[in-house]
Amino acid sequence: MRLLFIPCLLAALLVPATASAVAATSNQVKDVDRVVAIVNNDVITLTELEARLHEVKEQLAAQKIKSPPDDVLRRQLLERMIVDQLQLQLAAQTGIRVTDQDIEQALQSIASRNQMTVDKLYETVKQQGIDRAAYRAQLRDQIMMQQLTEREVNNRINISDSEINNFIEQSRAQPAADEFELSHIYLPIPESATPEQIQAAKKRADDVSRQIKAGEDFARAAVTYSQGAEALKGGHIGWKSAGQLPELFVGALEKLKPGEVSDVLRGPNGFHLLRLNQRRGGAIKEEAVQQTRVRHILIKPTEIQTRDEVTQTLRRLRERISNGEDFDQLAHAYSEDPLSASKGGDLGWINPGQVVPEFERAMNALTPGQTSEPVASPFGLHLIQVLDRRQAMTDERARLTARKQIHARKADDRYEQWLRRLRDEAYVEVMLDEVD
Question: Which of 53, 62, 181, 318 has its Cα between 20 and 30 A from that of 287?
Fold first, then answer.
């Protein structure tokens, strides 16, 4: 079910630009344009790359990260733009669409999270060299890629009861398991790498390690070399519990003091370097939590059926429910959520944080038996009906926390595998030599 275990949408104030988004600022570049990369049937131009270079250098300066030489950063950015382009191509090919209303909701969410108005948000990003049209284009691409990741990666992760039981037992045996604030450098290897390719990647990782030990700033090295999602943030990941990290990472981090960097680590997808920034104690908190039994009817706007038309359809369904028609039967007939429609729209008992914020806010505002007005989320529009509420037992809370942490750990690993496969299977030709 696509509602479950969705990461918080667009948590950062700024999102990484993509090839199509940077095109909105192409009027800043006056040189004759040329192609620097072919990505399947699309191209990335020098105009787009140079605009992206200018933007990222300003963002790095704002983060107080020393930028690597332009030729190095240019190649890093081009690879990031290629991977973004591949994701956008797949999203478009498989029917993912982002409407203006989706973008408006994202803007409101980002502005609210940063305690500012949308106008102030636009003003803030403009000060960093990104105009309104370019920022909206970035958001559109970011939402598309996020929905693609949800479908291709997060929703395909299975977690067994035995995994949850083992996780809880281990956590209770070590109640003071640490949480780590860390940074990361990732050097991938191809999915079917030859011994020579693996050895070459290991040599690159060893070279980076030696540079850091010789005094190179870790954040600058991450920008220069890392292929991880956090590379342009200096490799900074933030706080992670031990349960959210691979055992390979936890074993290395436990031996480090704040400020220290790990040896080169070999993982299933490539090589890693970790920097421990801070450490603190943490444990699963087994506490009662309010659960909500809820059902819904989901209808997705399309090019044929607009958002306004979907809204009117749901309002008519709500009126029919108010007049005594059975929600269960209407969900069977109208809902486009295949997993819950067959159960009359029933999503079961929902814990806090288990569904997207827009859905959860509307759900929490309802009393048992009450049906919402149409509610928009990244997945379409919903009618939501609360059936009941209860206080969950502490063990259920522990199981939910365990599931989330196991899911986060698996999702990170699967995401890197998926991106690597997407890149390896694509036709990509890089033509950057004349620029360097």
Answer: 181
